[in-house]
Amino acid sequence: MTELTSRSSATQSRRKTPFLLALGCGLLTVLVLAAIFAPWLAPFDPNAQHMAARLLPPSELHWLGTDSFGRDLLSRVIYGTRPTLVLIIFILVLTVPVGMAIGMAAGYLGGWTERILMRITDIFLALPSLVIALAMVAVLGPGLLNGALALALTSWPPFARQARAETQQLRRSDYLAAARMQGIRGLPLILGHILPLCLPSAVVRAALSLGGIILSAAGLGFLGMGVRPPTAEWGSMVAEGGKVIFDQWWVAAAPGGAILLASLTFNFIGDGLRDRLDSRHDS
């Protein structure tokens, strides 16, 4: 009976995975296409101000309404996908390689190297990410690249700890013992044999963590430390809408819905990848 239940759960998981993965990839495709073709998709100039049309509710002309400067919210939401996706790419490029390199080096070398690298990781892991990001942006100045650097500073430790744990398990495996018997050691062993086995879990963690990164980036924009105005950015748009949220709710609801959609997109992708790549779901 237990075996039948286990097989039924595995079957349900395999059925659920394509749906979540397809849904997440479909939403991501929409975001990417919106960012690439924003000049053709946006019905108005996102920075054009029309004070006579300020704070208009959603209508046939302005599908999501207008903000306090008369700018079309739909156009600004579409253009707002650009800084968000660029920020995500910057953070992934900065955090995943650094975190995995530190984790695999600590797990493979062990000893004092592992202790030093893991204590450094623990220090960064204990830092409040948004507070440190705010402090860095305050020092470096607001901007897309500075925001990415600030968020990346506290985003790499989870990748390091995960890679270190997996490398420790692999270090005692027969798979690596056979590779050593063939004369493969050091960096070729790490890059050719350990990295491919640690990479799937890192991809899953990256997808699942992007939702939180999007919220942190929106938090920087909300506090006025993200992309400089008048560039369309979802966090700063929510901050502007917060001033009139009780009377003109759509000003904050439009970018807030975009943040929710983007976060759900990467959560769906991470969920689907985890179920697909985790071998425990197939047993």
TrEMBL record:
Locations listed in the record: Cell inner membrane; Cell membrane
Spans traversing the lipid bilayer: 20-42, 85-111, 123-145, 182-199, 206-228, 248-270
Pfam families named among the record's database cross-references: BPD_transp_1, OppC_N
Keywords of the record: Cell inner membrane, Cell membrane, Membrane, Transmembrane, Transmembrane helix, Transport
SUPFAM superfamilies, per the entry: MetI-like
Source organism, top-level taxon: Bacteria
Family: Belongs to the binding-protein-dependent transport system permease family.
PANTHER family per the UniProt record, alphabetical: D,D-DIPEPTIDE TRANSPORT SYSTEM PERMEASE PROTEIN DDPC-RELATED, OLIGOPEPTIDE TRANSPORT SYSTEM PERMEASE PROTEIN APPC
Occurrences of domain ABC transmembrane type-1 (ranges): 81-270
Name of the protein described by the UniProt record: ABC transporter permease
Keyword presence, Cell inner membrane: yes
Annotated membrane topology: Multi-pass membrane protein
Main location: membrane
Origin organism lineage: Bacteria, Pseudomonadati, Pseudomonadota, Gammaproteobacteria, Enterobacterales
